[in-house]
Amino acid sequence: MDVLSVLKIIWTEKTVLDGCIFLVGILNLYIYFRARRVTKRLQDHFSKIDRMSALPRDSAENIRAVTGEASLMAPETLLECRDRMNKYYSMFSIITTMFPLLGLLGTVASLIPMVNSIGAEDVQLFFGALTSTFWGIVWALICKFFDIFIGYKVEDNEKRIEFLLNPKRTADEKRE
User: Fold this and answer.
1) For 30-45, what is the HEC assignment?
2) How many CB atoms lie within 10 A of CB 131?
3) Distance CA 111, CA 40 (A)
4) What pTM was estimated for this model as a whole?
5) What separation in angstroms does the CA of 176 have from each of 161, 162, 165, 170, 171?
6) 104: number of CA atoms within 13 Å, CB side?
7) Using one digit for the tens of pLDDT, what is the confidence trace for 114-144?
8) In a 10 Å sphere around its CB, with 0-12 CB exposed, 13-18 middle and 19+ buried, how is residue 68 labelled?
9) CA distance 124 to 102
């Protein structure tokens, strides 16, 4: 069997579980982009703070007077963004770890009927098992790849928010 034949079988031998894996994969990508949007908003906020802190105090005060404090997020907005970021990222991470399990579930569900029947139908059931496993692994890899781009930002935002909300406690913890 050549590669094109295998890919044709994978594409044509879809099961209900394959469809579920695709739907969960698309949902997970949607959640990823929601988490990414909130994470970027927080990163932009922290970039403004970083740029302002690098300026001499009188320059920073002049810029604040011209642009207004409204250019920075209020603490309530910061907390709301943090909560949304953590919620979406947590959902994304949990769903991503489910894909191999869904694929294995498809494999098991397709292999169980093979015990009762031996013959031409076995090949069909076997390919159903393999396609579920294939799609579960593919989606896990895709979502883990996206995790590369957002995971460290979520952790960084969390640390920065904690520092902004509790600067004394955070400084004390660093000394210990």
Assistant:
1) HHHHHHHHHHHHHHHH
2) 24
3) 44
4) 0.64
5) 20, 17, 19, 10, 9
6) 6
7) 655 656 566 666 777 777 778 888 888 888 8
8) exposed
9) 19
Structure tokens at 166: 């509790």
d(CA 42, CA 77): 10
Q: How far apart are CA 107 and CA 52, in angstroms?
A: 56
Distance of alpha carbon 15 from alpha carbon 64, whole angstroms: 59
Q: Report helix, strand or coil for 116.
A: coil
d(CA 118, CA 123): 9
Helices (H), the chain: 3-12, 16-54, 57-67, 75-111, 120-165, 167-175
